[in-house]
Design goal:
- The complex is a heterodimer.
- By secondary structure, chain A is of the alpha+beta class.
- Chain A folds into four domains: about 60 residues, no CATH class; about 130 residues, Band 7 domain (Tetrahydropterin Synthase, Chain A), CATH 3.30.479.30; about 70 residues; about 40 residues, no CATH class.
- Chain A contains nine helices and ten strands.
- In chain A, helix 3 packs across helix 6.
- The relative contact order of chain B is 0.06.
- Chain B is of the alpha+beta class.
- The radius of gyration of chain B is 57 Å and the shape is rod-shaped.
- In chain B, strand 7 and strand 8 form a beta hairpin.
- The chains are: A alpha+beta, B alpha+beta.
- The interface between A and B is large, with 117 and 114 residues.
- Strand 10 of chain A pairs parallel with strand 12 of chain B.
């Protein structure tokens, strides 16, 4: 054996040893976990601690699985509620591979798992939603709406109807029911949440009609309030006018009456000195006033005035 | 290794001393090692170092060293204010920011309110990554999960409010509640995100319903106009009536003054005349009487004097003609 061949052999041997050594190590990161399989058969449990680990080179294979929480985002499902309202329900959930061995055996990979979770959660969502009225899925508490002048007149569906369990609890039911099944595929479910709820188009149209009629009711309420209030103000105005006028009339009459009384008393005081003379004076005055050129005067000669016409006797 | 064993090499290679080649390779290796050992973290970021996949430390902004080949660096922008938009997207931000909406964003915005009505709610959320470790290692898709969390939380809160609260006076409160609940959810999920602000942008009734909401506003204005008109009428007529009342009272007072003065005058006149009359009643009486007659008689056109013995003069008078006139 020459020196050169020896060197070559050493180099090749070192290379082979290096490859074997490298294959004996595997790295587990913070984000994944590893199942070791030997000729396809799983050996031992999952390696979850991050760092450098050893396995038998070549005969054993490291299978990597995600360790972090994964997300499941379902397609929106058209589901009728208990009160027969058709809605789209869109949920999301968090899940993780809790038992990589079972997971590996049952569903192989995440894609397989996702489709199983689809089946499980969609089914449970359907059951849960169909068991409750729409309001239970929409509302979470029985908080009373703040009402304005505007909304007071509306019979608020939600305000009248009291919910028994509410959205959070329904999501919880979906989670609990689903969680019963998922360990079978090595999956732990967490936080099923209802992401979106919407009416299907038909129902939505009707709902819009309802909203429109609600607003029209508010609008007509405002209009009639406007009319009512303005009528009230006009009424108030009429009342005020009559008060002002009648008070003025009363005051005027009182003032006049007092003056009349005073005048009467002044006259009486003066004329009482000789009522007969007053009558005489006043009568003469009246003669002056009432007699004019239209008046015919027929005088008999026996009148006081004409007595001298026939005789000058005293 | 000796050169003498390979004479052919001397022909092909230029005459470079093998020591220099070795030195050059060594230098290159050292350079590569050095370059992959140093790393820089910019001010808005934080470095996360993994050794064989295991988390070992975080590093602050600046120049740092790591073990080449063994330690792996991940950068997380912890200081950066991040923003997500729901119900719309900013196309181009600038002085005149352009927004756009499409079928997807419309779906993001549409939600049911607690009175089973429908509202379109657009909102933004501003957040920071406060815990790089959690952000990287607790969830695989923190960004999309965070989107879902937003949608779920805002819809949940809106689902507990009436459409009027959502659209008008409850907006700020609802956004505040949503922000708090979102933060709680973030803490529960250990997503490593700190929610700074959740702000409602446009919140509207759905397009087909909008006109009826506008009608409400119009009717409100009509109402106010009607009331204002009525008040205007009130304010116009009442002062006038008050003025007229005042006038009536003043007139009455005038009447009173006149009446009393007249009475006083008449009385004084009578008293004066009476004083003189009392001194010579008979003559005065005659005088007054004759003065009056003197004054009255000339005014009259027809004066008929008949004898006291003549009876029934009336039938002779042609009164009818006079009456006819």
């Amino acid at each position: 054996m020459t020196k050169q061949t020896r060197t070559a052999i050493i180099v090749v041997a070192a290379f082979v040893v290096l490859i074997v050594l490298l294959n004996a190590f595997y790295i587990v990161s913070e984000t994944n976990q590893v199942i070791i399989t030997q000729f396809g058969e799983p050996i031992g449990g999952a390696t979850t601690t991050p760092g450098l680990h050893i396995k038998a080179p070549f005969i054993q294979k490291a299978n990597y699985f995600e360790k972090r929480w994964l997300e499941w985002n379902g397609d929106a499902n058209e589901i009728p509620t208990k009160d027969k309202k058709y809605i789209w329900v869109d949920t999301y959930a968090r899940w993780r591979i809790s038992d990589p061995l079972v997971f590996f055996q049952r569903v192989r990979d995440e894609r397989g798992a996702q489709s199983r979770i689809d089946d499980i959660i969609d089914g449970e969502t359907r059951n849960a939603v169909a068991n409750y009225d729409l309001i239970e899925i929409v509302r979470s508490t029985n908080r009373e709406f703040e009402l304005t002048e505007e909304t007071e007149i509306l019979e608020l569906a939600g305000a009248i109807y009291k919910i028994e369990i509410g959205r959070e609890q329904i999501a919880q039911i979906i989670l609990e029911k689903s969680s019963g099944t998922t360990p079978e595929i090595g999956v732990e479910l967490k936080d099923v949440k209802i992401k979106r709820i919407n009416y299907v188009d038909d129902v939505q149209r009707k709902q819009f009609d309802r909203m429109i009629s609600e607003r029209q009711r508010i609008a007509s309420k405002y209009r009639s309030e406007g009319e009512g209030r303005s009528a009230e103000i006009r009424g108030q105005k009429e009342k005020e006018l009559l008060r002002i006028q009648s008070e003025a009339y009363r005051t005027a009459q009182e003032i006049k009456g007092k003056a009349d009384a005073e005048a009467t008393s002044i006259y009486a005081d003066a004329y009482n000195r000789d009522p007969e003379f007053y009558q005489f004076m006043k009568t003469l005055e009246v003669y002056r006033t009432i007699m004019d050129k239209e008046t015919w005067l027929l005088l008999s000669t026996d009148s006081e005035f004409l007595k001298y016409l026939k005789s000058t006797n005293k | 290794m000796s050169n003498g064993d390979f004479p052919s090499m001397e022909i092909r290679l230029p005459k470079i001393k093998p020591g220099i080649i070795k030195l050059g390779i060594l230098g290159l290796v050292i350079l590569i090692v050095l370059f992959s050992s140093f790393y820089q973290i910019s001010p808005e970021e934080m470095g996360v170092i993994l050794r064989f996949g295991k988390f070992v430390r975080t590093t602050d902004p600046g120049l740092h060293l790591k073990l080449p080949g063994i330690e792996q660096l991940m950068k997380v922008p912890v200081q950066r204010q991040l923003k997500l938009e729901f119900g719309f997207r900013t196309v181009k931000s600038g002085i005149t920011t352009q927004y756009m909406t499409n079928q997807d964003t419309k779906k993001e915005a549409r939600m049911l309110t607690g009175d089973l009505n429908v509202a379109d709610v657009e909102w933004i959320v501003q957040f920071k990554i406060k815990d790089a470790y959690n952000y990287l290692f607790k969830l695989r898709d923190p960004d999309s999960t965070f989107r879902y969390m937003n949608e779920a939380v805002v819809r949940k809160i809106v689902g507990d409010n009436s459409v009027d609260e959502v659209i008008t006076f409850g907006r700020a409160r609802i956004a505040m509640e949503a922000k708090e609940e979102l933060q709680q959810l973030c803490d529960l999920y250990e997503i490593g995100i700190e929610v700074n602000q959740l702000i409602f942008q446009d919140v509207n009734p759905p397009e087909p319903v909008k006109p009826s909401f506008n009608e409400v506003n119009e009717s409100l204005q009509e109402k106010e106009t009607k009331i204002n008109d009525a008040y205007a009428e009130y304010n116009q007529e009442i002062p006038r009536a008050q003025g007229e009342a005042e006038q009536m009272i003043r007139a009455a007072e005038g009447y009173a003054t006149e009446r009393v003065n007249n009475a006083q005058g008449d009385a004084n006149r009578f008293k004066a005349i009476y004083l003189e009359y009392a001194r010579a009643p008979l003559v005065t009486r005659k005088r007054l009487y004759l003065e009056a007659i003197n004054e009255i008689l000339p005014k009259m056109n027809k004066k008929i004097i008949f004898d006291e013995n003549q009876k029934n003069i009336l039938p002779l008078l042609n009164l009818g003609d006079e009456v006819k006139k």
